[in-house]
Design a protein that fits this description.
Layout lengths: L1 H7 L8 H8 L5 H12 L6 E3 L18 E5 L3 E8 L6 H14 L13 E8 L10 E5 L26 E7 H5 L8 H9 L3 H10 L1 H15 L1 H26 L3 H10 L2 H13 L4 H8 L3 H5 L3
Parallel strand pairs: 3-4, 4-6
Antiparallel strand pairs: 1-2, 2-3, 5-6
Helix pairs in contact: 2-8, 3-8, 6-7, 7-8, 11-12
Length: 302
């Protein structure tokens, strides 16, 4: 009866960052995350430790709490796994910022640089943004081709290609996977069908991969729990209300405050206003009208 009840409850979407973290950072689910990372990185991992299992709740005037997954493997890799639902046109910039933070946070003053660990950022996006014919793109820092005028014959038959072994990006674009032609059902494909909710493929994946079965059991458990559903809905509504309030606040013009700033003729103040308007995707024509800045000045703020 219990299993039947679980199946009757609509599963919460794994593409939601809150649900994503609840499943993959769930206590006792380290093996699930390990299997998922093995599929992405195409390598065996002996052990993975989740460094931020807690979920910081939404606070007034703030964005969602910490809903990414930070992990570390036994062989010295640190990872940041992000679920991105909406294309905010800054995915590349976000990835660089996250990776930079991961690198700088590893070493303290006086630490030996050789203690640095490989940093990997993994973005799972519910939108396409790369002009590449792959749903899984791996980026590494590589050397440019040697220029003829800079060539020096050092006797190397093969030149080094990787400029740094400490940096790696992974971008997984879910809409591209949905268009993938049926072929070899890889381990990563198994996980992708879970994210894209392909029911028949999920059933096959559960039979072939016990960790996927474990993940789906966790998802069913969370989906069945009224408190979890309520928390999920409250986080969604809080974020929606925050964005709506912010949008209305600026769309109304906050006329008194904006006019006061413009009247003072403070260039920096007008630019700060423009930055906030850009963040909530106000049309550039409206920003020009509101702030008095030129189109070029506004574009340079991005």
């Amino acid at each position: 009866m219990a299993n039947k009840k679980i199946r009757e409850v609509e599963r919460l979407p794994l593409t939601d960052d809150y649900i994503f973290k609840r499943v993959f950072a769930f206590e006792g689910n380290e093996s699930v995350l390990k299997d998922f990372l093995e599929a992405i990185l195409r390598k065996d991992i002996k052990e993975v430790t989740i460094k931020n299992p807690e979920i910081i709740p939404y606070e007034k005037d703030e964005k969602r709490g910490l809903l990414d997954i930070k992990a570390e493997t036994d062989d010295g890799m640190v990872l940041d796994v992000e679920m991105q639902m909406k294309d905010k046109k800054d995915t590349e910039e976000r990835g660089v910022q996250y990776l930079g933070n991961m690198i700088t946070s590893q070493l303290q003053v006086g630490d030996d640089y050789t203690k640095l660990k490989k940093s990997i950022v993994i973005f799972i996006t519910n939108y396409n943004f790369l002009k590449r014919n792959s749903y899984h793109s791996v980026g590494k820092m590589k050397f440019d081709e040697t220029l003829e005028e800079e060539y020096v014959d050092m006797g190397y038959k093969e030149e080094e290609q990787i400029a740094s072994k400490y940096i790696e990006f992974h971008y997984i674009e879910l809409p591209k996977y949905k268009k993938k032609e049926p072929s070899k059902f890889t381990k990563l494909d198994q996980w992708m069908c879970v994210f894209t909710q392909r029911k028949e493929e999920i059933m096959l994946a559960e039979k072939e991969n016990k960790e996927i079965k474990k993940a789906m059991n966790t998802l069913d458990f969370i989906s069945e729990d009224p408190k979890e559903r309520e928390r999920h809905n409250s986080i969604i509504m809080a974020e929606y209300n925050r964005l709506t309030s912010e949008h209305n606040f600026f769309e109304a013009g906050v006329e008194e405050g904006i006019e006061k700033g413009i009247e003072k003729g403070k260039e920096e103040e007008r630019k700060e206003i423009a930055k906030k308007l850009l963040k909530i995707r106000i049309p550039i024509e409206q920003i020009i009208e509101t702030t008095g800045l030129t189109k070029q000045e506004i574009e340079e703020l991005n």
